[in-house]
Amino acid sequence: MCIKLKDDLRRFIHWGPITLLTLTLIVTWTVIHMNSMWWAPGSSLESVLNYALIWIQTFGTLYNFIRSLMVGPGFVPLKWHPQLTKDKMFLQFCTRCNGYKAPRSHHCRRCNRCVMKMDHHCPWINTCVGWSNQDSFVYFLLFFMSGSIHGGIIIVSAVIRGIKKRWLIRYGLRHMATVHLTQTNLLACVFSLGVIMGTVLASIKLLYMQMKSILKNQTEIENWIVKKAAFRRNAYPRKGIKPFVYPYNLGWKTNMREVFFSTGDGISWPVLPDCNEYSLTCEQLQQKKDKRARTRVFRCIRPATGHWVPIFSQGLWVSLQIPCTDDPRIALKPDDIIHVTRIQEYWLYGEIMISEKQKEKIRARKGAIRGWFPSCCAIEICEDSDSENDLAGGEPVKEQDTAAIESVETDQEIIDFMRDFSCNDGKKAKRLHIE
Ligand SMILES: [Zn+2]
Ligand SMILES: [Zn+2]
Question: Which Gene Ontology molecular function entries are recorded, alphabetically (predicted)?
């Protein structure tokens, strides 16, 4: 319990929560200060209500912010497995958590855990938005947005009145000339208005995305899986794959109830009558199998530093073409074997294949094992059509093998094979040819 509290508190020590809390503090101070000159509470009931609203919005924002950060998204227990052994074949295995991925859960590399109904990792709360904190996150956005709009109106009104101060006095409206603009409070107003404009736009966009996700009961990641499911069926019409029915959309009222009055456990979910609890995970396994079929194997020929802008090791041109994503960059050593799944002209995205020996040292290895690296650091290894089919996963995967898609044992066989292959027949290793 004590360790959990320490972990929860540690989430605050990050640029996201620190920046958000600091900005909230500055803006709230500015709003209260300007409001005290513009419409001080006490002169009328409306002024008291206006003042109370500022505090309700501030309290609501901070309470839901802290709650969504402290409660967290809900993590799948380490080494988790389904109750029935036969159900393991429908699930992916997470080597990091050493357990199966429950339906709707995904591994977050920043939280380093499998997250229940993972929506996205939010840097502002320094954790994921998922099963147990999505409601608090939405309330936080609502309070944040309404508080920012309200604060913006107060600051603008106060500044206008401050600018008109001489005019008000000249026309006998001295009781309204209460706002004194100084260099400090004017600077605070300009800064706060800038922050408010940014936060309003960001919170409207986030709120829209969250509400869309809640009403459809489909997280951003699931949305992507559904798109890939449609793509798979359009790309291979001859295979006659059964149409995919997304199983969790039970109508907007039930979907809303699931998030805001949740009674589930974050692992088992109600589904549509024609689906079962593994409909989505089976589709994910099939998509992984397709991805393996498209995977190409590369061998490192020049070390890659893993730097984001490798200007000294790779030169200016490669550094100017860096992929515009926050995926990690990986460091490579000569002879590392990489499974490449995304290809750009100057950069490749893949996963370093880990041998049994390296597996023991994996915890000591610095940096990610999956990410981008400069394409000139590796060459593609080509082989004859039969072995290519085997290596690329073209061979049908047996049902009992599907759960072990990420298993290191399978990788080890390929690593050994590729090392022998590239040593024995160098002619078959060719320079990278970009598509
Ligand atoms: Zn995991
Ligand atoms: Zn996360």
Answer: protein-cysteine S-palmitoyltransferase activity
Instruction: For 299-326, write each residue's pLDDT tens digit.
Output: 999 999 988 888 888 888 888 888 888 7
Q: How many domains does the chain have?
A: 2
220-235 and 279-294 helices cross at what angle (nearest 10)? Answer: 60
- Bin 397: left if φ > 0, else alpha if -120 < ψ < 50, else beta: beta
Catalytic residue annotation: 122
Residue 276, domain member (yes or no): no
Q: How far is the CA of 306 from the centre of ligand 1 (A)?
A: 23
Kindly report, residue by residue over 328-387, the tens digit of the pLDDT.
899 998 988 999 988 888 999 998 887 766 666 655 555 568 899 999 999 988 754 333
Q: Which ligand is nearest to the CA of 73?
A: 2
Q: Are residues 10 and 138 in the same domain?
A: yes
Neighbours of ion ligand 1 (CB under 5 A): 94, 96-97, 107, 114
Taking the CA of 121 as reference, the closest ligand is 2
Q: How far is the CA of 256 from the centre of ligand 1 (A)?
A: 27
Distance 275 CA to ligand 2 centre (A): 29
**pTM, full prediction:** 0.74
- What are the backbone dihedrals phi and psi of residue 71, each rounded to the nearest 5 degrees, phi first? -65, -40
Q: Are both 307 and 412 inside the same structural domain?
A: yes
Single out the residue in 216, 237, 261 at which a domain terminates: 216
Classify burial at 75, counting beta carbons within 10 Å of its beta carbon; exposed 0-12, middle 13-18, buried 19 or more.
buried
Looking at the CA of 110, name the nearest ligand.
2
Domain end among 216, 240, 262: 216
